[in-house]
Amino acid sequence: MNDMLLDVRDLRVSFGPGKDAVTGLTLRARRGETVALVGESGCGKTLSALALAGLQPREAAVSGSAELGGVQLLGRTERQLRRIRGNLVSMVFQDASTALNPLMTVGAQIEEVMAIHGTHDRRARRKRSVELLAAVGVPDAANRARSHPHQLSGGMRQRVMIAIALAGSPDLVIADEPTTALDVTVQAQVLALLRESTRDAAVLFITHDMGVVAEIADQVVVMYAGTVVESGPIAEVLERPHHPYTAALLASVPDPDVPQAGELPTIPGRVPPLGERDAGCPFRDRCPKSQDRCRERPPLGPVAGGESAVACWYPEHGEGSSRTVEEATR
Amino acid sequence: MRAGAAAAVCRYLGIRLGQALIALFGVTTAVFFALRLSGDPAQLLAPQGASQADIAALRHQLGLDAPVWRQYLDYLGNLLHGDLGYSYVQHEPALTLITQRIPYTVNLALAALVLSAVLGVGAGMVMALNRGRWPERVLTPLVLVGQAMPAFWTGILLILVFSVTFNLLPSTGFNGFDSLILPAVTLASLSAATIARMTRGAVLEQLDRDYIRTARSKGAGTARLVTRHLARNISIPILTVLALEVANLLGGSVVTELIFAWPGIGQLTVQSVDGRDFPLIQAIVLLAAVVYIAVNFVTDIAYAVLDPRVTTTGKAAGP
Ligand SMILES: Nc1ncnc2c1ncn2[C@@H]1O[C@H](COP(=O)(O)OP(=O)(O)OP(=O)(O)O)[C@@H](O)[C@H]1O
Ligand code: SF4
Ligand SMILES: [Mg+2]
Q: Locate the ABC transporter domain: which residues (chain A) (predicted)?
């Protein structure tokens, strides 16, 4: 069972009493696997990702466990984290136009990872940074390494971000909405690049776009209001979503094969903000199936006859944490 | 490409030179006419009890009886020949009087600039990097005091403590390095406080930027963040403050030179205004304007050197 490279259990991030932003994130990934973390804005995706690298805001308290190849990532000192970041865990941020230092050449920004983690030979660093740039598909890499970020296109900048993330040959690459700022064709290229270049790592891929999930993920974790409502293998979650929220998210993705008539269905209502979350199912204000029992929080449990886990009293497509096999097959 | 860039630089320099000449023309003209409205130097220069005829003769001798537009044209004509005029009071060329004083003011202003830049940038960085911790709590009131104290007050306080009470440092005149200390500290204190406050703000603003988070995600520690990432990015706002502070230092040097009987331009300014010494005042104002324009020009060049996004045409390149 422990062929898992990344093993996150019950990750919690809180900004104080009543301000629990992430309340129990559990996910696992093998080497070479991509886990997509999906959910609407404000549900705690970025915060979870930052917490894994120890980059959460100063006022945030993090608890739980996150092991990467047996190494505990949480509760580390800043000094220990500096050895982990860039080396074991690296990040690709959303907007490369602000995430890169505007006054430093892109080559120097790639080399910096190696300089921090012990490659003292300057020429070796330079050589490797050019190789990395070429590997992520930047043409004329040797010259491009001397460019500043503003001299590159958005897609090229995001490739540079990926080269930075790969420079330390990390075990975990966390990509936080890496393609949101890009247009569609470039987005597809960058996704393909991420998939190819991370064969030796686990990837935590954050997005709110179910269409992107279908393209890149092996496993899906659906978050809602700081908690996991459904997780499972990509095929199962996409074809047989168990949680009403997952189903609603999927219904709002345009199907490229079906010409769209009128507006896409959107999920009415909004995610309850931090101070307004109670002990019940967080989705119940927006859930078409909500009943009295939903005032109690449904636990995340396995679905019968599948590999997914779901947190809902009345899951769709068969078994949830409450119903028996007989009830479902009746 | 090369030739195009060279042409762009030439065009830019040409435009800046044109702007500078227009600014200088405006300043000299404004001062010239403002002075003629301010009063009659002959009244002041004439000895006690001089007759109206004597005063009129003196006015004629100074050329002040000619129509103002005539005086103005003469003034501009002389200026074009590099002639700044004669001091009414000291009977020497204004240029000579000024050049004698320049080294003293340059010494004082440079010492104050270096002092305030080092103290201000240092304190601002320390405050920003230790937000909410004791170094910030110690420095914040100091900065507030520095900003609230006018130069004459700081100067008198320093003289009382270091010259009168402990007799450590000279309080007047210029003889050697010792005598530079008190005036320089006086002149620098206000600027240092301003620079510290601006530096703190600039560093905090940069620390919030995404690229800092990226650097941290690579494993960069504080030392690397400061030297490799922050230093260059805050150098631009800091340079802007320093350029403004040069103007403030020149203004502040008038008061400081008076307090410490420092034989610089500031003192000369006060003398020339007291005596309605029109040519001397005009020359000093012209000099100040030239210095101010030169500082701005150097600052712009420095921007272009520091920030690759700034082109010499003054526009930031697109994304
Ligand atoms: N410094 C902070 N102090 C208090 N609350 C915060 C802080 N940072 C984030 N939060 C809260 O934590 C919650 C999760 O934010 P997070 O940025 O992780 O959302 P997200 O899922 O990444 O959304 P998006 O899709 O918009 O990026 C939000 O409700 C936000 O208001
Ligand atoms: S527990 Fe109830 S409210 Fe929550 S998703 Fe399931 S049915 Fe809807
Ligand atoms: Mg986010």
A: 6-250
For B94-306, CATH number out of 3.40.50.720, 1.10.3720.10, 1.10.10.10, 2.160.20.60 equals 1.10.3720.10
Cα of A203 from ligand 3 centre, angstroms: 16
**A209 vs A98: CA distance, rounded Å:** 22
Domain shared by A235 and A106, yes or no: no
Residue with tokens 């005029």: B85
Check whether A255 has a pLDDT greater than 70. no
B210/A90 CB distance under 8 A: no
Instruction: State pLDDT tens for residues B34-81.
Output: 998 888 888 888 888 888 888 888 888 888 888 999 999 999 999 999
Same domain, A187 and A38: yes
Q: How far, in Å, are A129, B106, B142, B152, B250 from residue B147 at the CA level?
A: 48, 23, 9, 13, 17
Domain ranges of chain B: 2-80, 94-306
Q: What is the pLDDT of residue B250?
A: 87
Q: Whose CA is nearest to atom 4 of ligand 1?
A: A15
B219 contacts in A (CB within 8 Å)? 81-87, 113, 116-117, 168
pTM given for the model: 0.84
